[in-house]
Amino acid sequence: MSTKKLSQNPHFILVTAGIVLFVVFMLQNTDIVTVNFLFWSVQLSRSILLLVVLLVGILIGYVLRRLKK
């Protein structure tokens, strides 16, 4: 079994590139937006909203993967 360096692993490279692109995207979207959901209305930075949506998506993916096993 050969051992690859972590930086040569394609999965690591894709995840790192995705994180860098997401951080750049967040830094460019710092405007304040109003989010309305049912009876709530919240004003927050668009970058924070994007981060929350990303984390919720990751959590849902994790839970669905665990339920599939």
Q: State the strand order across the main sheet.
A: 1-2
Quickly count the domains: 1
The biggest sheet amounts to: 2 strands, antiparallel
**Average pLDDT:** 86
Shape descriptor? flat
Structural class: alpha+beta
End-to-end distance = 27 Å
Radius of gyration, in angstroms, nearest whole number: 17 Å
Please write the string of helix (H) and strand (E) elements. Answer: HEEH
Q: How many DSSP H or I helices?
A: 2
Fraction in helix: 55-70%
Number of DSSP strand runs = 2
Strand fraction? 15-25%
Detail the poorly predicted runs. Answer: none
If you had to describe this structure to a student in words, what would you say it looks like?
With 69 residues, this protein is of the alpha+beta class. It is 61% helix and 17% strand. It has a two-stranded antiparallel ribbon with strand order 1-2. It is flat and about 50 Å long. The chain starts with 9 loop residues before the first helix and ends with a helix.
Question: SSE layout and pairings?
Answer:
Layout: H1 10-28, E1 32-37, E2 40-45, H2 46-68
Antiparallel strand pairs: 1-2
List keywords for this structure.
69 residues, alpha+beta, 2 strands
Please give a quick description of this structure.
It is built from two helices and two strands; from the N terminus they run αββα. The chain has helices at residues 10-28, 46-68; strands at 32-37, 40-45.
